[in-house]
Design brief:
This is DUF218 domain-containing protein. Keywords: Membrane, Transmembrane, Transmembrane helix. InterPro entries: DUF218. By secondary structure, the protein is α/β, with parallel strands linked by helices. The chain has a domain of 142 residues: 3-Layer(aba) Sandwich (Rossmann fold), CATH 3.40.50. Helix 1 crosses helix 6, helix 5 packs across helix 6 and helix 6 packs parallel to helix 8. The model has no long low-confidence stretch (mean pLDDT 88).
């Protein structure tokens, strides 16, 4: 009786299982290393601001609007778009929430974008606004954990625009990270990986993320 075929049958699944487990381990190591880098990158302070044609801030987190208003006052852009604003929110309300004031001249340079409901929507809304004003460069203001994905989506909708990232460090990232903040960072990391994959493969970037006019 030939027992070699039986031994081969037992060995083959064993090799396959080991290869599968090794692959899972490698993926876990790479994911963990990437996440550590992502957290570190998210907590980096912004570089010195660059003067651009316009400034866009993507709403959804602390300090973003305050920072963009400060940049507008500092002359780092002629116009400001605040993308993703609620349908009934006014500029006066936003300014008061930031404990700031705006002259009538500066207020006239601010546009409230009310249609975007996602980062992809922010990108489309920003692209339309920038092209309407014939802009060539944009200072992009959003949280550090969001900035890379925002730049990816904007690059896909407006490849002709020069995009200058200006990350904001939210208070939640300054202190020791809470469980809630870690959960947020994990979600954002997965979203970034998805955006990177879509950018590399050229796959459609999903729903546009704009409310109807």
């Amino acid at each position: 009786m030939d027992h070699s075929s039986g031994r081969c049958a037992r060995v083959a699944p064993s090799i396959a299982v080991r290869a599968f487990l090794s692959s899972l381990f490698l993926i876990a190591v790479l994911w963990s290393a990437g996440f550590v880098w992502f957290v570190h990158d998210s907590r980096q302070p912004p570089h010195v601001a660059t003067v651009c044609d316009g400034i866009v801030t993507l709403t959804g987190g602390q300090s973003r609007i305050e920072t963009s208003l400060t940049l507008l006052k500092g002359g780092y852009g002629q116009l400001l778009l605040i993308s993703g604003v609620g349908p009934h929110v006014t500029l006066d309300q936003l300014v008061r929430l930031q404990n700031q004031t705006l002259s009538s001249d500066l207020a006239s340079r601010v546009t409230l974008g009310r249609r975007a409901v996602s980062t992809i929507g922010n990108a489309y809304e920003t692209t339309t606004w920038a092209r309407d004003h014939k802009m060539h460069s944009l200072l992009v203001v959003t949280a550090g954990y969001h900035i890379r994905r925002a730049i990816i989506e904007l690059s896909r909708t407006a490849p002709d625009l020069e995009l200058v990232p200006y990350p904001v460090l939210p208070p939640a990232l300054e202190a020791p990270l809470s469980r809630q903040t870690l959960h947020l960072l994990i979600r954002e990391y997965f979203k970034l990986l998805g955006a990177e994959l879509g950018n590399l493969t050229g796959l459609p970037d999903g729903k546009i993320g704009l409310t109807p006019h």
